[in-house]
Specification:
homodimer, about 30% strand, alpha+beta, Thiamine-binding protein (chains A, B), globular, about 30% helix, Alpha-Beta Plaits, eight-stranded antiparallel β-sheet
Chain lengths: ~200, ~200
């Protein structure tokens, strides 16, 4: 939260934690990092979370790839994180905005994801209308699961789920209201998912 | 995100996931729920997260107790969640506002927590000033750890950490701008914490 300019920067960031519910959690996290091409994003890990920053398509691509690689171990894994763009306190540093646009992670295997998200368009008097519009978009795309307090449920194949999240994150911010936050919690290979 | 009134409701909610990085994750979660007195909050669990709602002191008390009980197993556990109040889309349902104020969970054992938080005062033009004020409060209380992109690090004994979070959540909302969101990620018994 450095006190600096920005607001119109194209930097997108994702601060997240990947949680394998397994004694092998270290190996699973390290394995996912090893198998994911993170060369197009800036990345830093501390004792609580990891942050990736860069062009939006690469940020979503890396987030999905890490999740998919962790899930293919078959273990129950969870991803919790916050996508951010346009924060007035953001800095121009730590970005990889000159990377080309070609996505580096192209594993297209299927993986069921149950998730929940919330949109927080900052300093925008019409923010509730924006939230409802993106929930309607989820319904139209067939990934809407359920309404609930403080969030909306999104589920389906991981590629459809991430495609929806990237679309919602694009449409919920504007040049007039550039600061957008989106929280996401995902559950994969949960015993609660039964035959999914 | 039901489309209803509110905004002045005293309901506080916390939607969270508790993630034990252990093959015994189901037993640890069930054990924490069993040992925590949740009688003063409304609670609902689905396949991704759990939500508790009620008077603010009980919501924070239950959140801390669940975390503490899970951590005392010695396993590496993580808590990710979002505190919310004053959402214009909130409903009056599913609340326990008539509960008396006596806190039900009083386990005062010490437990080191490393965590990160972000405040999102909604629809408030002065939101950045509010965020910086609460970060300054963390510094004054001795729980501030580090600055970082999109969040601030808070650490120390679990009781000090939760006391700070409840204080920040109280001070960052007002009758004029009642809708406040606070995300929190906590790590306990992490191998990264070394001798803490």
């Amino acid at each position: 939260m450095e006190q600096q300019h920005c607001g119109t920067s194209p930097i997108v960031g994702f601060r997240f934690s990947l949680h394998p519910m397994s004694d092998r959690f270290i190996d699973i996290i390290k394995g996912a990092l090893h198998e994911t091409d993170t060369s197009r994003v800036w990345m830093h890990t501390d004792d609580v979370s990891t942050v990736i920053r860069g062009k939006q398509p690469h940020v979503f691509n890396v987030a999905k790839a890490l999740t998919l690689h962790a899930a293919k171990t078959g273990e129950h894994v969870a991803l919790s994180g916050t996508f951010s763009a346009g924060c007035p306190g953001d800095t121009e540093g730590d970005v990889y905005l000159k990377a080309d646009d070609e996505l580096q992670n192209t594993d297209d295997r299927n993986q069921y994801v149950s998730s929940q998200f919330a949109l927080y368009p900052m300093n925008n008097p019409d923010y509730m209308a924006i939230i409802y519009r993106e929930v309607d978009r989820a319904k139209a795309r067939g990934v809407f699961n359920d309404s609930m307090h403080y969030a909306s449920g999104i589920h389906g194949d991981i590629h459809d789920v991430f495609a929806f999240y990237e679309k919602a994150f694009t449409h919920a911010r504007s040049s007039r209201f550039p600061h957008l936050v989106m929280t996401v919690s995902m559950s994969l290979n949960s015993p609660s998912h039964g035959g999914q």
